[in-house]
Amino acid sequence: MAVTIDDIRGAARQLEGRVVRTPCLASPALSELCGADIVLKLENLQVTGSFKPRGALIKLDSLSDAEKKVGVVAASAGNHAQGVAYHARNLEIPATIYMPEGTPFTKVGRTEALGARVVLSGAGLAEARTAALQQCEAEGQAFIHPYDDERVIAGQGTVGLEFLNDVPDLDMLVVPIGGGGLMAGTAVAAKALKPDIEIIGVEAALYPSMSQALGMGSPAPATPGRGGGIGGQTIAEGIAVKVPGKLTQPVIAELVSTLVLVDETALEMAVQTYLEVQRIVTEGAGAASLAAVLDNPERFKAKKVGLVVSGGNMDSRLLSSILMRGLVREGRLVRLRIGIIDIPGALSRVSGLIGEQGGNIIEINHQRLFYDIPVKQTEVDVVLETLDAKHVNQIVEALIEAGFPARLMGATSLGS
Fold first, then answer.
1. Prediction pTM value
2. Residue 38 falls within a domain, yes or no?
């Protein structure tokens, strides 16, 4: 194994005072919810909002003076870009970051604000990386790989070193996996400090690249129109990797117990749970470890489980959508279609009934012309804020009993 615990300890000494030594936080609320003793390693509080600056700094420190002078190049759609840019600026190293052409303006702006030159190239990360490597070859510059580099792996491994130093009695450690740099480094550190710890890696179900490469865990679920391949739109962009690291694979194969896949619904629910229960903001990749526990609580029951929260760089609009979808999923925000007779006072009676049942009307759409109903009748779509699924059912029953046919709209399935 190329990276050792001594390498990681050396990286920790280099990082001291130059990155945040993020806290480990016991979570009674999540523990009660999951049926396990949950402890969080909050890399979402790291400088730039993710664990990436750890490995980036160790790699940049290793460059010769000549390499630093000519500058470095990286390819990233977000967190790695900011990690490289942050430390390159502090070390006065010119940095160029290649990003896919569709990268959100906020990520481009954050990277440029840290002093890097951003070049948009290609439809995806693979094309951006190809363009970055071409510049490296043409200009003689160093390429800073996001995960497939021994020094980067050693830097990321300081997450596991800190976690086990702070919480040495963990039974299990759950870590998100993209290319595998964080997982590999953390696994080396954790197994060196506690050989009997069980380590579980978590991938987004749309990007099971490490699982497929190693033949570990469950096969990826089939996706309509695509089969069981790799790719698609995910909220866990930070672990949406099509080709896992070559250096990270043997480490993970040796030290990690299993890899699990979490789908988009599980990732959304984990992001929502972190915000509502723990009051912290995480990105999709950062919430993957909690998603794995929520998805299969029996596996973790009564264990002391460490969850690495790898990052918190979530787009505010996406976060808003996730939270609203969560309210719908839980029956706290619903849309009812209600039939009424088209006479004065009918709509007032409906709104009064809803109010009497404790529902809060958010929006009403009163449509007379385009529904296939008799001319003297109409239907209204009402968006309601409610307590839960049981409360929704009570409102619907009250409306029907009063002579107003009502039904739940949309794909949400509510339990009683």
1. 0.85
2. yes
